[in-house]
Each structure stands twice: as C-alpha cells, then as structure tokens.
Amino acid sequence: MAATPERASATPRRKAGRHRGEGQWAAGHFTPLNGNEQTKKDDDGLNVRTRIETIYAHRGFDSIDGADLRGRMRWWGLYTQRKPGIDGGKTAILEPEELDDEYFMMRVRVDGGRLTTEQLRVVGEVSEEFARGTADITDRQNIQYHWIQVEDVPEIWRRLEAVGLSTTEACGDTPRVIIGSPVAGIAEDEIIDGTSAIDEIHRRYIGSKEFSNLPRKFKTAVSGSPVLDVVHEINDIAFVGVRHPEHGPGFDLWVGGGLSTNPKIGVRLGAWVPLEEVPDVWAGVASIFRDYGYRRLRTRARLKFLVADWGPAKFRQVLEDEYLRRPLIDGPAPEQPVQRWRDHVGVHRQQDGRYYVGFAPRVGRVDGTTLTKIANLAEAHGSGRLTTTVEQKMIVLDVTEDQVESLVAGLEALDLQVKPSPFRRGTMACTGIEFCKLAIVETKGRGSSLIDELERRLPEFDEPITINLNGCPNACARIQVADIGLKGQLVMDDNGRQVEGYQVHLGGALGLEPGFGRKVRGLKVTAAELPDYVERLLSRFQEEREDGER
Ligand code: SF4
Questions:
Q1: With a 6 A CB cut-off, is 436 part of the ligand 1 pocket?
Q2: Ligand 1 contact, 260 CB (< 6 A)
Q3: pLDDT at residue number 273
Q4: Is the ipTM of this complex over 0.95?
Q5: What is the per-residue pLDDT across 37-95, written as a single tens digit (0 to 9) for each?
Q6: Rounded to whole angstroms, how far apart are CA atoms 76 and 46?
C-alpha cells in the first residue's frame, strides 16, 4: 500500500527541515516512530472498510487482521469492547488481546448533534436488532452502540447511510465528529448559525484521505450561541460566535484545547473568521496538525502540545503564511456567558415563536426502544427535528406552544425529565468497565444510583452542579472540568481490601471561570462511600459558601 505521507494532498507539504526529533512530517520525518504510526503508514485506516465488507463480515471475528482489529477499524467507528467479567485490577496487567471481546462498540457520528425523527428511528431499530438494545448518547453528541458483531457491520452501515448517518472517522487519528450548538438556527439569543460551516467541513474533508492520517484525534467545535454550549475550551479547534465591531457576526478562532494527559484550555489566536471562511481555516489548522504535529509519542501527539510549544502568535503566523496565504482579520473575544447551565434543558422559546424542549436521560443512557419512542413524540409534537448535546442530553425542536405540555408529559413518562434535579442534570459518566477495555471501575450504573441518592438526601439543593465520573485516568467524561470530578481507580477500604473507588478532583469548570479542578491530595473514596461523601461535601458547601461562590 502507498505510504501515507506521499499521498497527494491539496495542501503543499513543507520541505525537510532541521531534525527536531518529534516525528513531524514538515521536518522530513516520514519514518514511523511508533507502532501506531507504522500501522497508518502501512495502510490508510479508511481502506479497512473494503476488507470488512468483503472478508471479515463473511469469515467472522477470527479472520480480522490484528492491525485492523486494534487500529484501522477505529477509522470506521469500531472498537473491540471489554470481555465481560474481567475486573478492573486486571486492566493494566492483561495483554490487549486478553481484554478483547468478539463484540464491538460502534460510534455513530452526529455532526452538530442534528437528527431527524427518521434517523432516530433507524438508530433505534439498529440498536434493537444488532446491539442488544444499547444506544448511549455521548458527551460529544454521538450515539454509541455495544455488542456489535462484525458480520452485521455492512448491513448497519447500509441502514445508517440510507438516512444520511455514518460511522466514518468516528474514532481513530482523524477529524472526529464536529460538535455544533444544539440550538443552531433557532435560539432567540443566537449570534450566528454555524450549521452551513459544519456541513461544508463534513462534505469536503470527512472521509477524505487528505486528513485521514493525523498524529492523533482532532476535535472540532462550532457554535454561535452566547451560552457557549460546545465545550469549545477543550477542543483542538473551535469557532466561537462573536460580533465584530466592523464586520458583524462571525467566529473567534481557538486552538489547542484538550483533556487527558496535560490538560489544556485552548488559546485564542485573536482572529475573526467569517462564516464562509470557516472550512478553509479549519483545513489550514488541520493541515498544520498533520504536517507539524508530533508523531513520536502518542501521549504528546495532540495539537495542544504543538500549540503550547509555538504559542498563539507563531501558530497564527504559520497558518496565515503557509496555509491560507493571507492575513486573518483581528477580532474580539467572546463575551462571558451569563449562566452556568449550557445544556438547554427545559422549555425555551425559539426565534420563530415556537419552542425547543431539552430533556435529561440518566448519564446519557437510553436504549433503542426509548429512542424510537422519543422519535414518535418528536414527530407528534414538533417538526421532526431533534438534537443531542455535549452534556449527554437531547432536545426536541420546533414545538408549538399548544404542544409543549403534552410533549413534556410524554417525555417524563419515559423518565426523560424536562425539569430535572441539579443532580440528574449535571451528572455525566463515561462508558466504564461495562464495555471499555481501559476501565478500572464501573461508571454508568454508579452515576445513576448517585443521582437517586442525592435527590433523596438533598431535595432542596438547587445550585447548578456538575459531577463527572470516569472509569479510568483518561478524560472521556471531562472530570477535570467538573465541580466534582471522580477519576476511577482501585482504592483501599477500611478493611484494607482493594475495591473500586475514585480519586476526587474539585472545582473545575468550563464557561464561567474556566479552569481545571484540583486533585484533592489523598482524597479517595470507595464506590460504597461515594453518596455519603458527595452529600457531606454539598451540605457543607450550602452551609458555608459565601455570596456568589460556586
Ligand atoms: Fe474508558 Fe477511561 Fe474513557 Fe471511561 S475514561 S470511556 S473508562 S477510556
């Protein structure tokens, strides 16, 4: 197969420069420096689709090549899931193949979080027929299935693609789903609607070999909402709605945000981008990442490391001089949001006088049957449009005033709350040990029972609060930017036994006063103690807080 660096690209390659030892293609380092880079060089991840369709789906799991199984299948949204019954203590000890189940997690990308009721019905059908009813809403607006067998993948693709959905580059070292404001084009307070830019980036670049071999994943967010509802601070690239004093509504450009190892809040380049130029600027930044990004160590490969080394001024200069070949327009920073909740839960008026209705499942967990029922409700009460949010919530759009009450009642009958407690609203959980091979502890079930306990114990608590549970030291549920971040690990209980528990991080936030939570030294709680601990913490906060303290 052709090696990736030599593939034709619309963007000119940089010439070989001085040796900088990080595997940057722009410095002439085309020799792969680790196994992942070798796999990508051997064959583009996108090419695995043909093998899935023509070989693996017919011959079954055992026929799958190892580099495809643990590498390239991600380019089509497929990861092997964790074999049931392996406890968290074994996660770091076992070889990857010992943890692999013969079933897959499959991620469906939902760019901008936009779904029609027709699409949601197909998502529900696929869940029921091929995924044992599983369908989680992720914190990047995607839908995630479990229990997928390789034999069924071509048929699942056929059904999803027939309604305009796909799993293309839903995982892997690629441009992942483009997060968008879930109320784009309808919110009364909107600065600018970024939908056309999301669609154009998708049309030009998703599934294109121009960007199918990046040093690592590349996360994008676009929102023209003053609520700042796309966690723009922690994306590799973000376009945030602003009004330019001379040019009007457009986007402020941010780069280099990300959690996991060395979490970083993205930095502003001080540039204002008009709507129609967003796709070109996006391609320029993605090209810098592809060409100058670090490819030696996976843990230093995200764009944030390059941005941290270069600083915003040099990054903007390279973008302008080498990729856009024109200067960007200077522009203002976004204004501070006025509210802490950014999830659009509740009933809100739209620009056109209709309403949108945001509701909260528990920690993003729904199922195929529920999704079909949601589609039926949205069709009966709205125009057939829905969105997912980055807080694992959903919104029904375009509801006339006379339909609101009946829709709210229908959702609440499915335990999908439109007026949830702060605990239901603000608790998120990653996949955890149920399916994730990297997990050490359980998360979804525990998040759900924590909500019940806190609602029972603190019925009067009415402050916005975010409680995020991760099953391991990674950051899939954004623990570093939660009021209470819970990082899964094994801890000692009072009897000296190793049990599931959490390292506690406190005081993180996005939006108003963004920053990372502090790891409270030595503060670890066992899973059994978790409700008591959170109750004590929140009760004390209520008793002792000063005015305006969060
Ligand atoms: Fe898996 Fe860890 Fe991510 Fe949770 S945070 S989904 S356990 S990798």
A1: yes
A2: no
A3: 98
A4: yes
A5: 999 999 999 999 999 999 999 999 999 999 999 999 999 999 999 999 898 989 989 98
A6: 7
Indicate the average pLDDT of the chain: 93
Q: How far is the CA of 15 from the centre of ligand 1 (A)?
A: 38
Tell me the residue ranges of DSSP E strands in 340-458. Answer: 346-349, 355-359, 365-367, 385-388, 394-399, 427-429
Sequence letter at residue 1: M
Whether 526 lines ligand 1, by a CB cut-off of 6 Å, is no
Q: Nearest Cα to 60, choosing from 72, 68, 52?
A: 52
CB half-sphere exposure, 244, CA atoms < 13 A? 18
Question: From the CA of 471, how far away is ligand 1's center (Å)?
Answer: 5
Q: For 475-509, how does the pLDDT look when each residue is reduced to its tens digit (9 = 90+)? A: 899 999 999 999 999 999 999 999 999 999 999 98
* DSSP SS3 for 179: strand
Two tokens, residue 94: 């076992």
Alpha carbons within 13 angstroms on the beta-carbon side of residue 350 total 21
* CB of 225 closer than 6 angstroms to any ligand 1 atom: no
223 lines ligand 1 (CB under 6 A): no
pLDDT digits (tens, 9 = 90+) for 273-324: 999 999 999 999 999 999 999 999 999 999 999 999 999 999 999 999 999 9
Q: How far is the CA of 439 from the centre of ligand 1 (A)?
A: 5
Q: Is the distance from the beta carbon of residue 474 to the nearest atom of ligand 1 less than 6 Å? A: yes
